[in-house]
Amino acid sequence: MAWERAILPVEEGRIGAPSVKLVYEAIKVGWLKRWWCPEPDRPDWAWVANEIIFQGAQQKPSIPKDTVCEWVCQTWPIKI
Length: 80
Description:
The protein is mainly alpha-helical. The chain has three helices and no strands.
């Protein structure tokens, strides 16, 4: 049985299995809601996540300057 058919409701003769994509999206939204929660209800891991993100944003890029090429300096083949 195709998964698209399996997730249809029982009323339509299917098994009513939950959609994995929808469950995954719901889990991500739940994590974001807890992460953005106000101070008294905020979990401890949210502070750790903030610190990791902050430290990652403060680091200098690891791409050497000479790797980046300006579009103005590039040459393009011209067919005449």
